[in-house]
Write the structure tokens for this entry.
Amino acid sequence: MQSQKRIFDDIAKVAGGALGALGSLKQEIESLLKQRMDRFVADHDLVSREEFEAVKAMASEARAEQERLLARVVEFEAAAKPKSAKSTTPKRNRKAKAATSPS
């Protein structure tokens, strides 16, 4: 009975040591994979999620600003149209009068 208990204790110690070694192996593999992925990302000029989100926010802000500026341009053009139409009409009349009048 005593020898069976001792065998089970030995097996438990070996199994515990094996599990500890497997845990260390798992950490080692994860570390190697992380290093490889970091190297792959650096070699292929990929961006991180944070960088992507920052550029996406900047692009969205630039698009909104472009739309605001476009609205202002349309507004200015609408305000300038009546003035342009009045100023071009007399020039045409003057040219027409100059062409018909004897010199």
User: Anything to note?
Assistant: The two ends are 138 Å apart (CA to CA). Residues 1-46 form one domain. DSSP finds two helices and no strands in the chain.
